[in-house]
Amino acid sequence: MSQFKFRLQTLLRLRERDRDERRAELAQAYQAEAILQERRRQIEDELARLHDLSREAAAPGAVNVDRLLDARRFELVLRSQQQVAEQQHETLAVEIDRRRQAVVEANREVRVLETLRDKQRERHRQEEGRQEIKRLDEVATQRRGGEEGP
């Protein structure tokens, strides 16, 4: 029996490598999203803490105006950082979707070649089976021919 050899094996390996690269790129985007999400949470925590400090500074009694002004300036900085982080999140969401689609397409390309390989392998197996049956029939015919001799 002859060994099955898929003629497009090199192309399949290239497509699998491309798929693996797309998956790695998507994983990097998810990692960036996690880092950005953590930064957004830190900003929210800072804003909450700043709000508490401002409320304490504005409590009845002596008011430290400089402290309130510093808190207000810091709040503006945090709000600006929050806005930048939100824009980055939106950009990253688009990039994640693009990379997810690239992974889906790469998976599809690999599956097409794998399906083709499997079909060709099955045809090869069937042809090998037919050839084996043909050889067995020839052997049986030759033996019958030898038994009917003189």
What secondary-structure arrangement, pairings included, does this model have?
Layout: H1 9-57, H2 65-147
DSSP helical segment count: 2
How does the major sheet shape up? Answer: none
H-E order: HH
Structural class: mainly alpha
Task: State Rg.
Answer: 35 Å
Instruction: Give the strand tally.
Output: 0
- From the spread of the alpha carbons, the general shape counts as rod-shaped
Parts with pLDDT < 50 across at least 5 consecutive residues: none
Helix content: over 70%
Overall mean pLDDT score?
92
Head-to-tail CA distance between termini? 36 Å
Beta fraction: under 5%
What is this structure, in a nutshell?
The chain is mainly alpha-helical. Helix content is 88%, strand content 0%. It contains two helices and no strands.
List keywords for this structure.
mainly alpha, 150 residues, 88% helix, single chain
What does this structure look like?
The chain is mainly alpha-helical and 150 residues long. The protein has a domain at 9-108. It contains two helices and no strands. It has helices at residues 9-57, 65-147. Helix 1 (9-57) runs antiparallel to helix 2. It is rod-shaped.
